[in-house]
Amino acid sequence: MPHNTISAHVLLVDDQPANLLALEAVLETLGVNLVRAVSGPEALEALARQDFAAVLLDVRMPGMDGFEVAREIRARPRSRFTPILFVTAGDDPDEAMLSAYALGAVDFLAKPLRAEVLKAKVGVFVELYRSKEELRQRERRDFEQRLEAKEERYRALFESIDEGFCVLRLVRDKAGKVRDYRFEEANEAFTMHTGLRGAVGRTIRELVPGPEGQWFQIYERVAQTGEATRFVEEARTMNRWFDIYATRLGGPGSDLVAVLFSDITQRLLAEQDMRRLNDELAQANRRKTEFLATLAHELRNPLAPLSNGLHLMRMGASKPELLDKTRQMMERQIQHMVHLVDDLLDVARISTGKVELRRQRIELKDVVATAVETSASLIEAGHHKLHVELPSQPLPMDADPTRIAQVVSNLLNNAAKYTPEAGRITLKVGVEGNEAVLSVTDTGVGIGAEALSRVFEMFAQVPSSAAKPQGGLGIGLSLVQSLVALHGGSVSAASPGPGQGSTFTVRLPLAASEAAGAERNAANAAGKPGQLQVMVVDDNADAAESLGVLLDIEGHAAHIAHTGAEALQIAREHSLDIVFLDIGLPDMSGYDVARRLRLLPGMQETLLVALTGWGTQDDRQRTREAGFDRHLTKPAELPAVEELLHSAAQAKRVA
């Protein structure tokens, strides 16, 4: 700002208007604002309102003389250093001059005043005031520029950090208890870590319905004690975990809390998955060790009689009866070894997905008869009674007869092995809806509740002190489950408990007749008003496409996605009724996709169905927490899928 443009004020104090007018006439050419005061109190009021370059103060005034006014001026912080020029017309100027200088006056002028002298002296103080004011303004500008630069650096740092950062102001009720908090500041990363937009100026209760009370308690404690704290806490209403550092801003009594935080949900889920995988690997390693030991034992068992048989054949070459008996024993042992090797090969084929079903139209009752004949020798060896119940109507199926016979035979063999001598085995076949239901019930050793969930696992064998050790590798029931699943069916186990027998139930789809097919097509045509918009999300293209074909056959609109990103895009473009969502996707987990789907408009009522190979209670609990409505274990049972579609379509037609 140019020097001469800085505004300056001079205060003229005199009880005589004529004297004030004379002073104004002399000083008006200085280019300053001249302020009048006709009394001491009026002068002090003017000095309280603004700053002056100089004060021309008459000594002799009624009520409050100039010396008293000067004392008040010097006593006040704002005007303590304001230049005072006394003006007097007294008879003894020397005595008045001494009093004036004692009060801090910068000059003492006696009347009559000389205009040039007065103008020059006042002009010096005006210039001094303007110089000081110019310096002060320059310093202020420099300070503001430095402050602005610091603010820019702070803002750049504030927005560049990856962690979320915000400043909270606690909101208290009438009793002083924290019931809410308002976001005063937040960086860009805040939205990324919380998913909350437009948070500044709003409270957490406005942004998140029903926030947990522990957050208020933690922040209130930080504000009260002033002690910074770091903690990990779950925000259940947001389905996120946060790593948080909180500290108070300001001194005691401040309700401002600074919070630096990160969303660690994915990290915790990854750690949980890692721990789960470690447990599974440890369990798999234990089972592998047990399996190798069992395999070595099972292979050694026939080797000993085979070796003995060769020795007997050399010794008894001239004894036909001995040779025939030895040959039969060796054939049985070789058949046992062949059976073990066949089971191992089947496990390898199923594990690598190389099993090819040779489907053909079969009659289930004929296959059951073949399986019973295959297992007859083992059942008879245990002196068991076998009771078979078959329905009168035909049971046509599109299946691999060899594999279905293997399923039934394995169940019968399992029952015979784990049932004490002279037990009872019941094989029952029935029809429920469009499924054949085959059950094998025995009076054997039974299965404990804790072992039921593991009975179909590879190499699993039910421990029982009441039963004698049984041969086998513990893969028969696992093969049953895999082969049944390949046929689109399901298998389950039930037992009242140890020593009370068990029941294994297999459900297999029956072949639809032409009449049933026509009836289904008619039903699909009639169901057009209840057509569903269904999305299938699976990185396995064949699995997704096959389910999509089923949806088309049922008359529903199918949308296929192979990644989480594709699923979210389809959900934004279509109003979906059902989503079949695979948990293991290449770009993000199905749990994350489910949480994000629930946040999209119109997706709160959509039926989310989890498709996963994990079916434990913990897995089901985890899918519920992620927002899924149903949990289907892979491979999903077609009847369950059809029932779900039928219920949803009926509900849509009613709506």
Automatic annotation (TrEMBL):
Residues with 4-aspartylphosphate modification: 58, 582
Catalysed reaction equations from the record: ATP + protein L-histidine = ADP + protein N-phospho-L-histidine
Enzyme Commission numbers on file: 2.7.13.3
Occurrences of domain Histidine kinase (ranges): 294-512
UniProt domain Response regulatory: residue ranges: 9-126, 533-649
GO cellular component, one term: plasma membrane
Source organism superkingdom: Bacteria
Name of the top EC class for this enzyme: transferase
Subcellular localization: Cell inner membrane
Membrane-protein topology: Multi-pass membrane protein
Claim: Acetylation is one of the keywords in the record: no
Major subcellular location class: membrane
SMART domains hit by this protein: HATPase_c, HisKA, REC
PANTHER family reported in the protein's UniProt record: OSMOSENSING HISTIDINE PROTEIN KINASE SLN1 (PTHR43047:SF72), TWO-COMPONENT HISTIDINE PROTEIN KINASE (PTHR43047)
Protein name: histidine kinase
Originating organism: Ramlibacter monticola
